[in-house]
Structure formats: C-alpha cells, structure tokens
Amino acid sequence: MIANVLTIAGTDPSGGAGISADLKTFSALGTYGMAAITAVVAQNTVGVRSFQPLDPAFVADQIDAVFDDVTVSAVKIGMVATAGIAEAVASCLSKHPECPVVLDPVMVAKSGDLLLKQDAIAAIRDKLVPIATLITPNLSEAAVLPKKERPDSIDAMKAVLPELHRLGAEWVMLKGGNLPEAASENSIDFLYGKGGTEMLSAPRIRTQNIHGTGCTLSAAIAAYMTRLPLPDSVREAKAYLTEALAESGKLDVGHGHGPVHHFHNLWKSFAAR
C-alpha cells in the first residue's frame, strides 16, 4: 500500500516552499501527501511580505481530523509560527508516539525574513524537539536552538552536534549548505545519532534556485522513512534534493530565489515519451 505522510506547515502561494514543496515532494517520492496548515503566508521568490498564524485549536483540529481517519506513516513539521501552535502540535503528536516525526525548525526564510514570533523559539526547543525522530536545523537554527555562535566551519559543525542531540531528538541532521565556500567546496551535512556521526557530502550546485530547499529535504526524509531506515532515508533525500537543484534551471519561476525541480524524474519520463 502507498504510505500516507502528513505535513504540518505554512503556505507559499508561489509554490516553492512550505506545504506546496512538501506535497510535491511526497508525491514525487511515491507517497500520499496530506497537510495541516499552521499559517497563511504572503511570500514569493523575492521575500516574505506577511503571515497570519492560525488559531492553535484549529491547527490541532486539523491534525486530529487526519489521525482520526487515516493511517499516518510519517509526519513532517515545518513552520509553526507561534508558541501556541508549537504546543498544540506537540500535544496532538504525543498521542501517536509510534509515528516518526521529522522536524525542520523553520525560523528564517532564505530572504532573511522571520517566519515565527519570538516566543516560538523556546516552544520549538522545549516541546517539539523532544518528540522528534529527527531534527534538520541549518547553521543559523543550530545557533539559536542551543543558544550558541553560528557554526561556520566543519569543525564547528561537529562540535555543536552533541549539544543539539541533547535537546531530545533521536537524530540530528545539521545542514551545512550555506557554509562559506572557503570552508567547503561541497555541500556538507552531518547526521548524528545512535550510530555516531556521519558526514554527508554532495556537489555544491551553482544555482539561485534555492527557495524551499529545507522544506524539500525534510519532506523527502519523511517520505523515505516510510520504507527505509532513517540513515538511508537521509542519504536518499540528500541525493534527491541535489538532483532537484541541478535540474532547477529548467523552471522559470519568479525573479528571486526560484524553486527546486521537485518532479525532475517524472517530467524527464514524460519528455522521453
């Protein structure tokens, strides 16, 4: 049977990030996508204009409605926007401890715009991280969660991994895609958990089309987790994102940071026919 994967995140009317990216990724990787919306966001490839968080009780009602009716194989959490929403999400998911959870602690958009209220940071750290199977912070988020300086080298990334792990998630994937190029010519991530530390390296794709990369990666991990062990899921998801970045030049979306090509494999098969 096809696995059902739920995203809990905000919207993106330009289609490259948030629930749009998540649902495209779930579908591209052979799973059935579902979505509970936390916030309605006015954004495009250039930046975030504004966002309206939904009532936490309504967010909880969406999540409960899915679990009451559908067998959920995995959950991906993205933008939660407020402390109240983070607490509501944690309360709902705590009733389903058997369901794996990938938490992308979304705090800042690629444009630099904040995607949460200040009180949400502590709620993400204290309520959501401890129930997550895997967290996928980028370098800026890795500095905020344990309140440390941003790790801007490979050695600094390695050093912060145990502190991120102590926050309570089973696994940590620290993303180094925005390391200074002097630190690494490749895209370097680290996976830290039960098996120790694994460095994941892929070619750095030269493109401006990086809108929604964090959403896409975490959604891909959640989709792969429905049929693979977590370390394999992370490796496969990174390979999928690398290819989606490499093929993104075939899209013509917006004037800023464009989206990745979520359906690169499927559309290639259409073209071949």
TrEMBL record:
Organism domain of life: Bacteria
Documented EC number(s): 2.7.1.49
InterPro entries linked: HMP/HMP-P_kinase_dom (IPR004399), PM/HMP-P_kinase-1 (IPR013749), Ribokinase-like (IPR029056)
GO biological process terms on file: thiamine biosynthetic process
Pathway: Cofactor biosynthesis; thiamine diphosphate biosynthesis
Gene Ontology cellular-component terms listed: cytosol
Residue intervals of the Pyridoxamine kinase/Phosphomethylpyrimidine kinase domain: 12-261
Name of a matching Pfam family: Phos_pyr_kin
Matching SUPFAM superfamilies: Ribokinase-like (SSF53613)
PANTHER family found in the cross-reference section: HYDROXYMETHYLPYRIMIDINE_PHOSPHOMETHYLPYRIMIDINE KINASE THI20-RELATED, PHOSPHOMETHYLPYRIMIDINE KINASE
Name recorded for this polypeptide: hydroxymethylpyrimidine kinase
Organism: Oxalobacter aliiformigenes
Gene name of this polypeptide: thiD
